[in-house]
Amino acid sequence: MHTCIFCGEVYKSKYLENEYAYAVYDLFPVNHGHTLIIPKRHTEGPFDLDPEEILAIHELMKECKIILDKEFQPEGYNIGVNYGEVAGQTIFHLHLHLIPRYRDDVVKPRGGIRNLKEPLVEYTDS
Predict the structure, then answer these.
(1) What domains appear along the chain, each with residue ranges and CATH number?
(2) What are 85-112's pLDDT values in tens digits?
(3) Most buried of the four, 44, 91, 98, 103, by CB within 10 Å?
């Protein structure tokens, strides 16, 4: 039997949806307004999406941004997908993180998600 939290009842609290995807607030948000955009078809990763699903997810992301801008007034966004266990994926149904960012929400925001681990090559401003 196939069990998936994104296919089940827990995530039926959609705040926006279209034919191919839906959006919910993350149950464990990194920041206020942290949204998950989830394709309705169960698939593990972004490489399995059909072109119309990719377009629908992108359109939904833009619509979510309008709502989040109005509701939370973020100054920026991080957009990401964890694909594969070694990349941090814990729910194996594709979901895109749309994370509003606010001034001073972290000490050193430069590099965004690059702050996840030490870089392979040191970056300098010169």
Answers:
(1) 16-103 (3.30.428.10)
(2) 999 999 999 999 999 999 988 888 887 7
(3) 98
Low-confidence ranges of the chain (pLDDT < 70): 1-2, 9-12, 114-126
Q: Which two tokens stand for residue 13?
A: 């609290």
Residue 34 annotated among the catalytic residues of the structure: no
Using DSSP's 3-state secondary structure scheme, residue 37 falls into strand
- The count of C-alpha atoms lying within 13 angstroms of the C-alpha of 87, restricted to the half-sphere facing its C-beta, is 12
Question: Which structure tokens are listed for 76?
Answer: 């920026």
The CA-atom distances, in angstroms, between 84 and each of 25, 91, 94, 117, 123 are 22, 9, 10, 17, 27
